[in-house]
Amino acid sequence: MAFRVGQKVVCVDAHGNATITLNSVYTVSGLFDGFPSGRPGIFLVEVHEAHNKFPFFAHRFRPIVSRKTDISCFTVLLNPSKERENV
What we know:
The protein is mainly β. The protein has one domain (about 10-80). It has one helix at about 70-80; strands at about 10, 25-30, 40-45, 55, 60-65.
């Protein structure tokens, strides 16, 4: 899963880590590829330990997908048709 700096993510796995909270929203501040396991990591704006930021495994997070709300298809249904249907 690809992340980008500035992206909002939600924590889906906080097991064994007291610095992140399940279902909390965080902001990606950087990307990390130096774990010995080869797994990707991310840095989070909201998490600071002393003066050092440290990476988290990226699989602990999911991107938040924001969508523009468009209800125009529903407002058309609210406007009565000018033509009457013959039954």
